[in-house]
Design a protein that fits this description.
- 32% of the residues lie in helices and 11% in strands.
- It is of the alpha+beta class and 129 residues long.
- A two-stranded antiparallel ribbon has the order 1-2.
Length: 129
């Protein structure tokens, strides 16, 4: 075998080994690393976003709430504590008063509203006796 053919054979073998290694590493990354990363992102609550009902101005105590006092703000879910007023209940707050001062662009919570989420807002069916 001539020296030139030997060099071509070694070069071809090295290229084939390189392509095999690159293909193996790509397959490993696709089949092993990506699904774990996706699963972690889906279950990690730090990255979930929620649309929250917020006031567009500072609301001192005993302020009467109007419909134009509201806006929607997208924020991390973990920053909302339980008792936040859902967006679809904004119209239930119109005409009511605040019992605590609420700062501009802070989420609206039921305990900041007069009568909170009382039973008159969501009446339960009564059964005749």
């Amino acid at each position: 075998m001539t020296r030139q053919r030997l060099c071509i054979l070694i070069l071809a073998t090295a290229c084939a080994a390189g392509f095999f290694a690159a293909g193996f590493l790509t397959a490993f990354a696709v089949f092993h690393a990506t699904p774990c990363g996706i699963r972690k992102a889906k279950t990690d609550n730090r990255f979930q976003q929620t649309d929250a009902l917020v006031f567009t101005r500072d609301m001192p105590r005993d302020s009467i709430i109007a419909l134009d006092d509201f806006d929607m703000l997208t924020m991390p879910t973990v920053s909302l504590r339980p008792g936040a007023v859902p967006l679809e209940d904004a119209f239930l707050l119109v005409g009511r008063r605040t019992v605590n001062p609420v700062s501009k662009f802070n989420p609206v919570y039921w305990n900041d509203i007069e009568n909170g989420a009382c039973d008159t807002l969501n009446p339960q069916p009564t059964t005749p006796q």
